Amino acid sequence: MTAENPKKDEGFVLVTVAVLLVALIGFVALAVDVGVLYGARTSVQVVADAAALAGAFTFINNPTASQPATASSHALEVALNNSILGQPVTAGDVTVNVDVTNRMVTVNVTSNQNTYFGGVLGVTTANIATEGIAEAAEYSTGATCVKPWFIPNTVF
User: Fold this and answer.
1) How far are the Cα atoms of 32, 82, 103 from residue 21, in angstroms, in the given order?
2) Which of 25, 46, 106, 136 could form a disulfide with 56 if both were Cys (CB 3.0 to 4.6 A apart)?
3) Which pLDDT tens digit goes with each residue over 29-51?
4) Nearest-angstrom CA–CA distance, 99 and 37
């Protein structure tokens, strides 16, 4: 029988921990980037929805306005007054389409977001695009000072 050589197994744990640590850091980096990009997508969707609603509201608020110019300008103005993760929205990021016949406004917003850890894998930016659609009903009316009703729920 031969005695095992203890020198042969030295460093095995160190190599295993180093490999697993790299994999763990990779997963953390992926989670951070995906989380930030999902947050950016939510922000882009909010901008698109708000702009579409502002454009569609012009059909109700000012029915004699020249369309589609009024709806398009209001939608673009609302989009440009917002930001996505601290970056202002530019006119090149927004596309507004107005369907006057159906009183519908469609707003497409794109945003190019940087990744934090994706550069290690060669992905330094991600393009995010969303679409917001709003329609004004033909017989809807606008009001300037509507008070919401609230009935408190006292049942626990």
Assistant:
1) 16, 40, 56
2) 136
3) 889 999 999 999 999 999 999 99
4) 31
> Tell me, what DSSP letter sits at residue 148?
P
pTM of the predicted model, to two decimals?
0.76
Q: How many angstroms separate the CA atoms of 130 and 59, rounded?
A: 23
**CA of 128: how far to CAs of 36, 43, 51, 116, in Å?**
12, 10, 17, 16
Rounded Cα gap, residues 92 and 127, in angstroms: 14
Where residue 72 falls among pLDDT bands split at 50, 70, 90?
A: very high
The pLDDT value given to residue 50: 95
Bond from prior residue into 6 cis (ω within 30 degrees of 0): no
Q: Concatenated DSSP letters for 49-95?
A: HHHHHHHHHHHHH-TTS-TTHHHHHHHHHHHHT-EETTEEP-GGGEE
User: Smallest Cα–Cα separation from 100: which of 59, 131, 139, 61?
Assistant: 59
Q: What is the mean pLDDT of residues 96-122?
A: 91
φ, ψ at 132 (rounded to 5°)? -120, 135
